[in-house]
């Protein structure tokens, strides 16, 4: 925890969410975020990812959610047309304290990691795959129905928290639902939230119809 930065460059990317212990590819092309990646690569390779809130007004800059996830750049490549292709590994969630005034083109925030220290622990939470079989079964059905391809055998080789976070991130849930999963305090609560969200998809999954 001591080495975590108190101020983070923030990438407020719509329709994108990253969870701890997951890795995602990003295509960077906007000049201000090219600047952000350049600055990050020169220092600690860390950036904060937060979803903007969905509001009716087209606010610039957009209002952000209070909880985001710290990501570390683990792979970096520049294309011929000057875009950056990076891979970002989620490390730990954070809570926003306030925006910092700066001359940079991108936004910076003072952040706090205290609530989410357990994200950095390798200790295994007391959950078993058998506890999750029904959730996985319903999730699998939902994924397949929406045309998502998931290598379930590979997933089961991962640790349970990696699996749950990967499924939460890749699932065809709405971004608001994924934000709820991101903010869940621990893995057990996240598992229960996935189950709750899945119940709202049940009719869609099994082609059931309801009386109007």
Describe this structure in words.
The chain is of the alpha+beta class. It has two domains: 114 residues, Roll (Archaeosine Trna-guanine Transglycosylase, Chain: A, domain 4); 77 residues, no CATH class. The chain has six helices and six strands. The chain has a five-stranded mixed β-barrel with strand order 1-3-4-5-6. Strand 5 and strand 6 form a beta hairpin. Helix 2 packs parallel to helix 6 and helix 4 crosses helix 6. The radius of gyration is 18 Å and the shape is globular. The C terminus is likely disordered.
Layout of helices and strands:
Layout: E1 7-11, E2 23-28, H1 31-42, E3 46-49, E4 67-78, E5 84-100, E6 107-112, H2 129-145, H3 152-155, H4 160-170, H5 175-183, H6 187-205
Parallel strand pairs: 1-3
Antiparallel strand pairs: 1-6, 2-5, 3-4, 4-5, 5-6
Helix pairs in contact: 2-6, 4-6, 5-6
Task: Tell me briefly what this model is.
The protein is α+β, with helices and mostly antiparallel strands. 34% of the residues lie in helices and 24% in strands.
Second-tier CATH architecture of the largest domain: Roll
In the CATH hierarchy, the third-tier topology of the largest domain is known as Archaeosine Trna-guanine Transglycosylase, Chain: A, domain 4
What's the structural domain tally? 2
For this entry, what is the oligomeric state of its chains? single chain
How are the strands ordered across the major sheet?
1-3-4-5-6
| Approximate shape | globular
Strand tally: 6
Largest sheet: 5 strands, mixed, barrel
Strand content: 15-25%
Count of runs of 4 or more consecutive helical residues: 6
